[in-house]
């Protein structure tokens, strides 16, 4: 994977690093990603639903985890939309 270095505000550096780690993990676990925009959006919605479930349960730790997963899947979708 080709990498670049970017400058980001200090307060979001850790968050972005965690997002990228979840993105890399998701690509390793599920190397194939649907080409169909409906299926892509469904995957993002599924993750967002899991986030909402954990938020409803007031579980901050699992909410954080699901939030990172939602963002990671959304980034995967965005990369496919940019092609």
| Coarse shape | flat
Number of strands: 0
Q: How can the largest sheet be summarized?
A: none
Secondary structural class: mainly alpha
User: What is the element string, with H for helices and E for strands?
Assistant: HHH
Put simply, the count of helices is 3
Overall pLDDT confidence: 95
Strand content: under 5%
Helical residues, percent: over 70%
| Rg, Å, rounded | 14 Å
Cα distance spanning the termini: 16 Å
Which segments are poorly predicted (pLDDT under 50) over 5 or more consecutive residues? none
Please describe what this structure looks like.
By secondary structure, this protein is mostly helical. The chain has a domain at 37-83. The protein is built from three helices and no strands. The protein has helices at 10-29, 37-56, 60-81. The longest helix has 22 residues, at 60-81. The relative contact order is 0.15.
């Amino acid at each position: 994977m080709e990498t670049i270095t970017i400058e980001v505000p200090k307060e979001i550096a850790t968050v972005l690093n965690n997002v990228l780690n979840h993105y890399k993990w998701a690509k390793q676990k599920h190397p194939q990603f649907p080409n169909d925009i409906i299926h892509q959006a469904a995957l993002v919605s599924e993750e967002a639903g899991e986030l909402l479930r954990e938020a409803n349960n007031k579980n901050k730790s699992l909410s954080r985890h699901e939030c990172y997963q939602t963002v990671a899947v959304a980034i995967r979708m965005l990369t496919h939309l940019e092609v």
